[in-house]
Design a protein that fits this description.
Elements lengths: L3 E10 L2 E11 L4 E5 L6 H9 L6 E6 L2 E2 L5 H7 L1 E3 L12 H12 L10 H17 L15 H14 L4 E5 L7 H17 L3 E5 L3 H7 L2 E6 L2 E6 L1 H5 L2 H8 L4
Parallel strand pairs: 3-8, 3-9, 6-7, 7-8
Antiparallel strand pairs: 1-2, 1-4, 4-5, 9-10
Helix pairs in contact: 3-4, 3-5, 4-5, 5-6
């Protein structure tokens, strides 16, 4: 059974059709890229999957659940977490404090006025593991607002991971980064996918990175699916080359 099944998904904003009859599947453990030119509807699809927007039509199934009518917090609880194009973090807090917040939320402590000693110990241990998981152990006590853009993105990914997702949605995780930062985030994604077997859906404009990481690619153009297939199939697809890629070396 596919982990995620998007079926005939559409989103209209008045007369504007942002997403039109989009369908694709994501298999457990897969790294699946969604690509396409600006305005193709990629982020809108993420917003529909995560529950930030309601679809005009279509269905979204996650495992054996119909989720297209579930509120966002119920989808998070079911196992879907995401990042955004613009990094969403707490810049005035340290790396550890940022990730501790996510860890406390995942543990159900968000509304608790106090924690027992054993609960505090558990949260501290889980937070330390999460900081290490995203490669920021040496920067755990640094204010996030002082870090590089790449490290801030790693913190945001850590916040998403703190929710213990089965499916991680990454919206342009390397946007605005230099070569080394891009490589660092790429290695983090590879580790999460290959070592931890996490299912990832990725929106990305860096085509060499997409073809390096993805096992399957869905191409959107003008809100519709232009093509869906393996990287080799997408690279050789004449319609995709004409509309978006050009010649892929």
């Amino acid at each position: 059974m596919s982990l995620l099944r998007v079926s005939n998904l559409s989103k209209h904003f008045g007369s504007l059709v942002a997403v039109n009859n989009v369908s694709f599947n994501v298999e457990p453990g897969e790294l699946h890229a969604v690509i396409g030119p600006n305005g193709a509807g990629k982020t809108t699809v993420f917003n529909l999957i995560s529950g930030l927007m309601d679809p005009t039509a279509g269905q979204i199934q996650f495992g054996d659940m119909d989720i297209h009518e579930l509120p966002m917090h119920r989808r998070v609880k079911a196992g879907i977490a995401r990042t955004f194009q613009i990094t969403e973090i707490f810049p005035e807090l340290t790396v550890s404090e940022n990730l501790r917040i996510g860890t406390e939320v995942a543990a159900g402590y968000r509304l608790r006025p106090w924690l027992s000693k054993s609960e505090r110990t558990n949260i501290k241990e889980q937070t330390e593991k999460l900081v290490e998981r995203v490669g920021l152990s040496t920067k755990a006590s640094r204010l996030v607002g002082e870090l590089s853009h790449g490290d801030q993105r790693a913190v945001e990914i850590g916040l998403a991971l703190s929710l213990q997702p089965k499916l991680l949605l990454l919206d342009e995780p390397t946007a605005g980064m230099g070569d080394q930062e891009t490589e660092d985030i790429t290695l983090l994604m590879q580790h999460l996918h290959r070592t931890e077997k996490l299912t990832i859906v990725l929106i990305e404009h860096d085509m060499p990175l997409v073809f390096r990481l993805a096992q399957r690619i869905t191409v959107l153009a003008q809100g519709e699916v232009l093509a869906d297939g393996t990287p080799a199939e997408i690279a050789s697809n004449e319609n995709v080359q004409s509309a978006y890629l050009g010649k892929v070396e």
